[in-house]
Amino acid sequence: MGLLIQNGTVVTAEATFAADVLIEGTTVKEVRSDIDAGTHTVVDATGMLLLPGGIDAHTHLDMPFGGTTSSDDFETGTRAAAIGGTTTIVDFAIQAKGTKMRDALDTWWKKAEGRACIDYGLHMIVTDLGSDAGKAGLADMDDMVREGVASFKLFMAYPNVLMADDATIFKALQQTAKNGALICMHAENGSVIDVIVQQALAEGKTAPIYHALTRPTAAEAEAVQRSIAMAEIAGARRMSRSRMRSMCLRLRCGRRRIRRSCGMD
């Protein structure tokens, strides 16, 4: 016996149409009109939309940062997500500088274990490949890909906290070109922004608006272009040259903003 949702409007990535949905256990078995009710539990969805569960690929649950911790943990955050129709999240395991990625990943698995009430995965934030020319860190990346970690995030901002230098970024890009993972890049010129921030603080410019004004679009455009150029040299997945030129031009002209955490695909 399953759960039969009748008379609703199904919305997929390709089409919107009237259909019934039969669910058995945790599997959607059929999506079509006029499914026989049989012994199934029936829910009437007349006038309602039936959508697949959402996937939130960028969350920060139980995350320490700047002396604070994000307000939701894996229990409260995933509960709220489920109520809102999100059935999968991808959070971020954060490697502190001077530590191993493996330890950070295990820490974040433990944060979620027994608490999450929906499906979840992890991106791995890379800050340090190690002191052996990165060999241990790069090997850790391969191990994580084999475990199912499909993406790694690197920061070009937040000096002395999360920011990776160009050599680390380039080595990580080379490694993902081999193991098939995706690099998500926070692309801003962190060194330049840090100077602007310090100058603003010295001038007493501490109102919220200065968070934006100390991060000019040109600093983003430069970092985007630099990261894509490194990806090209490394043979990693990236956007086309024409798309890169168009995006950077629009950023410089201030006509368009993009997510700073973007996969280069």
Question: What does the model show?
Answer:
With 265 residues, the protein is α/β, with parallel strands linked by helices. The chain folds into 2 domains: 48 residues, Roll (Urease, subunit C, domain 1); 210 residues, Metal-dependent hydrolases (TIM Barrel), CATH 3.20.20. It contains 8 helices and 13 strands. Strands 6-9-10-11-12-13 form a 6-stranded mixed beta sheet. Helix 4 crosses helix 7. The C terminus is likely disordered.
Note the topology:
Layout: E1 3-11, E2 16-24, E3 27-32, E4 41-44, E5 49-50, E6 54-56, E7 64-65, E8 68-69, H1 74-83, E9 86-94, H2 101-112, E10 119-125, H3 135-147, E11 151-155, H4 166-179, E12 182-186, H5 190-202, H6 209-213, H7 217-234, H8 241-253, E13 261-263
Helix content: 25-40%
Number of strands: 13
Strand content: 15-25%
- Count of helical regions: 8
- Beginning-to-end CA distance, first to last residue: 43 Å
Stated plainly, the CATH topology of the largest domain is called: TIM Barrel
What's the CATH class label of the largest domain? Answer: Alpha Beta
Principal-axes shape call:
elongated
In CATH, the homologous superfamily of the largest domain goes by the name Metal-dependent hydrolases
Note the run of SSEs as H and E: EEEEEEEEHEHEHEHEHHHHE
| Count of distinct structural domains | 2
Detail the poorly predicted runs. Answer: 254-265
Largest beta sheet: what is the strand line-up?
A: 6-9-10-11-12-13
Structural class: alpha/beta
Radius of gyration: 22 Å
